[in-house]
Amino acid sequence: MKHKHQFPRRRFLKLLSYGTGALALTPALNSLAACSLFHQQKKLGIALVGLGGYSTGQLAPALQETKHCRLAGIVTGTPSKAESWSSKYNIPDKNIYNYSNFDSIADNPDIDIVYVVLPVSMHKEFTIRAAQAGKHVICEKPMALNSEECKEMIAACNKAGRMLSIGYRLHFEPHNMEVMRLGQKGIYGRITSIDTANGFTYRGDPNAWRLKKALSGGGALMDMGVYSIQGSRYATGQEPLFVKATEEKTRPELFKEVDETIFWELEFPGGLIAKGKSSYNNSWGYLRVKAEKGEFELEPAFSYGGIAGRTSKGQMNFPQVNQQALQMDDFAQCIMQGKATRVPGEEGLKDMKVIDAIYKSLASGKKERIV
Questions:
Q1: Dihedrals phi, psi of 351, to nearest 5 degrees
Q2: For 35, 86, 207, 235, which has the most beta carbons within 10 A of its beta carbon?
Q3: Which Gene Ontology MF annotations are present (predicted)?
């Protein structure tokens, strides 16, 4: 079987109710109502755009466990990947695309959802192209290079009447959902402090796209820090107003273009300060919340599995789950039932506003307003 994938990606590189930001996307929901009964009769087809490590190691395996959606197609610029994925997952040739003929996916009724799993610089383009092709979209985080791109993506999906969701898997993970419940419901009273960090020691390819600012938009803050920002936001259920940030770089020869380690303080309404850290040179992964009448924390907090937590009353007792399967199934159900996703594009936009302000604070050396 031969596939005409002559345009490699490298060429394009030159507790469910406590999720935050479940904003209704009115144009999309109106268009969904008419087809919801039809969708309820089948599993929705997902096409993965970009077959890197996350698609290969997490999303494709998760789609073998999902109940409401299935792996129906792929988009890749690498012929060898097209061959191997087609064989492994029984994907028909007509459901395999490259980055040049991607727009013809509009004519394929097998594909209901396009999942964009590409370098950040390509998120906006393929989210918009997918929506214009009439497909609902899941876009990986961070949502885009900056908040202005996020706004364009949201507007394009609304105009097309398609739903947009961001890959915030932890909104479907029981321990993190418990943090949302405890914090947002004030179970231990008013939150008095938050300390959170996420990172790892980077030992990968020194030429990887994640280390190229034009492709990634930034370093550990974009890749890992988005989890800590999310944690602070969903623990409080509030949006931060200001941020002050500083940077540390111990391996400038490796991180020539992007940040290595960033420290920040988010100021929330009422004066609450949430301290955060992101790094490509430290193994961190915790979320610690103190309140007037107790405390609660997760460590590990943000990993694909093995998440553990405790409160003032003892250890949290929740099962480990396939986060990605639950995330994708929930979005499929939102489409089928004509309801809003709890992690819409607006949720990604809120994180990017914080990230934009952190980078602005690094440049100015001052506290910056998050706008």
A1: -65, -40
A2: 235
A3: nucleotide binding; oxidoreductase activity
Decide: 220 and 182 in contact? Cβ < 8 Å: no
Entry pTM = 0.90
d(CA 340, CA 142): 20
State which amino acid sits at residue 326.
L
Quickly tell me which residue has 């109710």 as its tokens: 17
Q: Is 359 a catalytic residue?
A: no
Residue 126, both tokens: 């393929």
- Phi-psi domain of 216 (left: phi exceeds 0; alpha: psi -120 through 50; beta: other): alpha
Q: Which of 99, 227, 234, 359 is catalytic?
A: 227
CA angle in degrees (0–180, nearest 5) for 217-223-224: 140
Cβ contacts of 63 within 8 Å, gap of 6 or more: 46, 69, 70, 71, 325, 328
Question: For the CA atoms of the chain, what is the radius of gyration?
Answer: 20
| 357 vs 280: CA distance, rounded Å | 20
Q: At how many degrees (to 10) do helices 174-184 and 226-236 cross?
A: 40
Q: What is the residue-level pLDDT of the chain in tens, covering all 371 positions?
A: 444 344 455 444 444 445 444 333 444 555 554 444 444 459 999 999 999 999 999 999 999 999 999 999 999 999 999 999 999 999 999 999 999 999 999 999 999 999 999 999 999 999 999 999 999 999 999 999 999 999 999 999 999 999 999 999 999 999 999 999 999 999 999 999 999 999 999 999 999 999 999 999 999 999 999 999 999 999 999 999 999 999 999 999 999 999 999 999 999 999 999 999 999 999 999 999 999 999 999 999 999 999 999 999 999 999 999 999 999 999 999 999 999 999 999 999 999 999 999 999 999 999 999 99
Q: Which of these is catalytic: 43, 141, 277, 353?
A: 141
Which of left, alpha, beta for 146 (phi over 0: left; psi -120 to 50: alpha)?
Answer: beta
Is 304 tagged catalytic?
no
